[in-house]
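--- STAGE predict ---
source: upstream dedup step, 1 unique chain passed
mode: sequence only
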Amino acid sequence: MGLRITTWNVNGIRNPFGYQPWRENRTYQAMFDTLEADIVVIQEAKIQRKDLKDDMVLVPGWDVYFSLPKYKKGYSGVAIYTRSSRCCPIRAEEGITGVLCSPNSSTKFRDLPIDQQIGGYPKPGQLSSSIDEPTLDSEGRCVILEFPAFVLIGVYSPATRDDTRTEFRQGFLDALDARVRNLVAMGKQVVLCGDLNIIRSDLDTAGLPERLRKESMTLEDFFSSPSRRFFNQMVHGGQVVGERDRGREEPVLWDLCREFHPTRTGMYTCWETRTNARPGNYGSRIDYVLCSSGIKDWFIDSNIQEGLMGSDHCPVYATLGDMVRDGATKVPITDVMNRAATTEVMNRAGMFMDGANVPRDMVRSGCAKVPITDVMNPAGMFKDGKRLRDWSAKYLLPMSAKLIPEFDRRRSIRDMFMRKATPSSKSAFSTPKPEIQETLDSADTASRTQETLGFADAASSTQKKSSTPQDNSFSVSQSSAPPTPKAVALHELELALRKRPAELPASSNRPQKKKATLGKDSAKPGPGLAQSSLRGFFKSKTPVSDSSLNKETEGVNDVSSPQSGTQPPAEAARGKSPRDTPVADDVGAWLGDGGDAGLSKDGKVFDPIQSKESWSKLLGKRTLPKCEHGEDCQLQVTKKAGINCGRSFYACSRPIGPTGERLPGTEFRCRTFIWSSDWSGRS
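--- STAGE serialize ---
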């Protein structure tokens, strides 16, 4: 099986889980398995460093590298997930210019030693924008991983929203172009993938003629925009208007989807959600997987996955074959200079076996094929497609999110609860000595017995036990040797902790809050005497006589009363009476007997629901207009700048068609259009 690279703008790292098929198993591991990907490049993560969770970072069998915005919240963000069983990067960086620093380091990537750099950093003369380099890398738009085979660049290019972002966008694209060209010039292979926010040709967008007509543009003007000019000068087969720019004379990358589908129309990767354009496939192709010439033949397939929902974009992938030609493998010169018909005879004679009989000059062979895993992992991990060393945490790079302090040395969320307690020194709550064990057991038995007795019996039992000296001191007959002071202190502490729940209700020194004052304050409602029914909320507050109050509290003092039954000591201590417990009469009062609540003078009950229906009948219910399909229209708001910006209108709720036009008699959006201010339909 080959190795698949997938790029996907998810519009929020958790956004796909609201759609099928991701909502059934809401884990990233299941998502990546469904994508059948080994490297997943995600754009628009829209998350902050403090909001990273275990399920995002500690994905079993996967490593992850993030680049998140430094200042803006819920904005941009790029992540690259790599399957540890298939590939393992040897270097990782954040940002396109190399001016950022590795985690826990103050050294910029471009200032690291040569053997630790990825290289290809833009030079001062290659950047024409006035935007400084730290600003270009402050929005979390690029993650770069280097494998032995190639350098993978995952990007999220700025979009053209308004003129205020034009300079930043052009500066980022210039830095990207310089980095790619410098890496290729160094002899490294490059794979560039992500959301570039650029329409390459007229095949890559729907409704282009109508758009040009509305904007009074020609096709030549359309391709002369700075972003499209940059892109078409970078890729092979791009439509470049006029002469090429200086330093961009030669293309360096291949558009893999177009290489496998050169004339396919409707191969779009992004659709407008506001107009529900995806069902009619009225969109654009702005997500790409590009590669340099040296590894173009390694790819056996590339396509879009427009059927997978979860975002306003769809995934795009490119698959590397199982066996690839390794241009980095060195072989003896004689092995590649004597492969004619006589080679077999000469090899039988042993003349050129590994160049043994000639000078050992070595050359790079473009013919030798090796398993893809051999060139996608550090040296010595795979050999001839077989794993020699298992992946371990020692291969984690400083940029790995698994090394963030919150996630370091943890493999999964289960480890939070499965950690073994570290052995500590002898604490005050260690196991008691044998000489006091019997005393502790007797105290524990007494405490449990006290909890099971009635309130009055428990109180008398506690008083008797408190007068017994054996509860508070050690019996000499239980041990031949006197207990140590430390054991005595331990016994008293544990005895106090065990008896605390039983002492609270049995204590006679503490005042009874609800039974202490039975005078004037007893008429005030309090938390101890709960309302028996809803009627009590609307009754006047009249003083309660002592006789009625004594009847009310009689069940509290008499524990053995057959009417009240045995009451737990805790409830008696809080002053609760049997009336506090809901009974059948109270349930009936709640369901059917509303008392005097909401009664008018004539005895009728005020019903707010009936009143609302009466007002609705008086004013009339506003109905939605019907479109040409006979369906309810949808209320929308004008966002286009102009005098009508902000006005609401009714339009057909169906998705827009593949042409972008509203045509009658089709299954797509019809021509119905009604201003909301012009519609006053009432039922």
